[in-house]
Write a structure and sequence with these properties.
Elements (H helix, E strand, L loop, with lengths): L10 E5 L2 H4 L48 H15 L3 E5 L2 H4 L10 H16 L3 E5 L7 H7 L6 H16 L6 E3 L11 H5 L10 H25 L4 E8 L2 E3 L4 H23 L4 H9 L10 H4 L6 E6 L3 E3 L33 H15 L3 E5 L9 E3 L2 E3 L3 H20 L3 E7 L19 E3 L11 E3 L1 H11 L8
Parallel strand pairs: 1-2, 1-12, 2-3, 3-4, 4-5, 5-7, 6-8, 7-9, 9-12
Antiparallel strand pairs: 10-11, 13-14
Helix pairs in contact: 2-4, 6-8, 12-13
């Protein structure tokens, strides 16, 4: 009996974000987004330490302005994804490509046509698009004029945007995500929510009110989407990060519980349609009073069809975290786990944590799940191979292999999982550090952190490995 457990029709593929790989930041009527003025990445070095560098105008130091030029090379890249056998490709629509300032009434036709062309190219190869509506790409005008999601006005602008793209692509896209890593707004409010208030001046009241606005907008988008096409599958997307207690001290376990509730808050509301009791206590103890507009309570009841998430690492938690080494490279905090190895950027590698996440989400919600980000950022070295330049990235193959074996274990546990998209199937600009040297892809892109390079694409060793994984529907993992 085969060990392979992946179901027939499992959606294998890769995931990207417009701001990290499209480039063409001002082409064909596109407006600026918050990404265009954060040349060093959008994430503080440590939670709450300082805001990222924010410039007044785009500058040449920002690799995201050109990305890897998918905007002009999408046919070449999609052909490579098809060669690997992708069943699904996750991408985001750049809000400011459709509504340059974010608050216009009429959309930019050139922006709409670009995504029409991309979806048509995917369809040519039988690849399903999985589209994120807002992936850290709030139009810059909405950040500067309205303070991003701190303003309720953004709900109306977002509704206009999603209604436009839902209607335009209702026969081309089935799978949708409302916000990328929606819980990250608590830790990176400018990148995630377009909130221009400096982090150390942003009150908990204003931050959680912004969270409420996003949650209402997400539920409203779900309602609008199902009205436009009842066959749409609309999900939320959260940053998943399981936590372990540093010791068996009950206070350490309580620290784990409180940390995980910060993240469960977002999936709980998306899946259950109401605020959980534990957050009500938190609000009361922190003098937070969420302002509900008439109808908000009913809108929140428009729950998602599935839960999607990113998974890169786990963390450890302690009642007295100052007694331990802090986790490096993690925007959500936590302390280092002595039982785990770390990537070059300090992200702790924990394949078993992915199985735990899958079981915890499924046990909690009994909704289908979708892993929409998982991968290893590393400094790849391009070498001459027998078939031309390549990268011997056995470390990436090992990382993905171990994680996918644990996905298989979760499937044996009874978890319902629709698909798996690796983060960055092609090298792109890092969201957290704005580097290209932090590479994730199966495809190497000749571009460097100083902006030099030809943008030529080369297949890494992992390209053919993932191709075999897909071709065997996971059977390759059990050889």
């Amino acid at each position: 009996m085969s060990k392979n457990i992946f179901p027939e029709g499992f959606l294998w593929g890769g995931a990207t974000a417009a701001n990290q790989f499209e480039g063409a930041y001002n082409a064909d009527g596109k407006g600026l987004s918050v990404q265009d003025v954060t040349p060093q990445g959008g994430v503080p070095a440590h939670p709450g330490e300082h805001d990222p560098l924010i410039t007044q105008e785009p500058n040449a130091d920002n690799l995201k302005l050109e990305g890897i030029d998918f905007y002009h090379r999408y046919k070449e890249d999609i052909a490579l994804f098809a060669e690997m056998g992708f069943k699904v490709f996750r991408l985001s629509i750049a809000w400011s490509r459709i509504f340059p300032n974010g608050d216009e009434i009429e959309p930019n036709e050139a922006g709409l046509q670009f995504y029409d062309d991309v979806f048509d190219e995917l369809a040519k190869y039988g690849i399903e698009p999985l589209v994120t509506l807002s992936h850290y790409e709030t139009p810059l005008h909405l950040a500067r004029q309205y303070n991003g999601w701190a303003s309720r006005d953004l709900i109306v602008f977002y509704e206009n945007y999603v209604r436009t793209v839902f209607t335009r692509y209702k026969n081309k896209v089935k799978y949708w995500l409302t916000f990328n890593e929606v819980n990250s707004v608590l830790h990176a409010p400018f990148m995630s929510g377009g909130i221009a208030t400096p982090f150390d001046e942003l009150s908990k009241q204003d931050l959680y009110q912004a969270v409420h606005h996003e949650l209402v907008a997400s539920a409203s988008a779900t309602k609008i989407g199902h009205e436009i096409n009842p066959d749409f599958k609309i999900g939320c997307m959260v940053l998943a990060m399981p936590a372990y207690g540093m010791t068996s001290n009950p206070l350490d376990q309580l620290a784990v519980h409180e940390f995980e509730n910060q993240n469960y808050l977002f999936s709980d509301i998306h899946a259950r349609g109401k605020y959980p009791n534990y957050i009500k206590r938190f609000f009361k103890e922190n003098n937070i009073e969420i302002q509900f507009a008439p109808g908000d309570e009913d809108i929140l009841k428009n729950t998602v069809d599935f839960i999607s998430f990113s998974y890169y690492m786990s963390v450890a938690q302690a009642h007295n975290p100052e007694d331990y080494d802090s986790g490096r490279g993690n925007i959500m905090g936590g302390v280092s786990n002595p039982y785990l190895e770390s990537s070059e950027w300090g992200w702790q590698i924990d394949p078993v944590g992915l199985r735990l996440v899958l079981n915890n989400f499924y046990d909690r919600y009994q909704l289908p799940l979708f892993i929409v980000e998982n991968g290893l950022g590393a400094k790849d070295i391009l070498i001459d191979g027998p078939d031309g330049p390549t990268v011997e990235d056995d470390y990436r193959i090992d990382y993905l292999h171990k994680h996918l074996v644990q996905v298989g274990e979760a499937l044996k546990d009874g978890v319902e999982l629709w698909g798996y998209t690796t983060w960055g199937p092609i090298d792109l600009v890092s969201a957290s550090t704005a580097q290209l040297s932090k590479r994730y892809g199966f495809i190497y892109v000749d571009r460097n952190d100083d902006g030099t390079g030809s943008l030529t694409r080369y297949k890494k060793k992992s390209f053919n490995w993932y191709k075999e994984v897909i071709a065997t529907n996971g059977g390759k993992l059990y050889e």
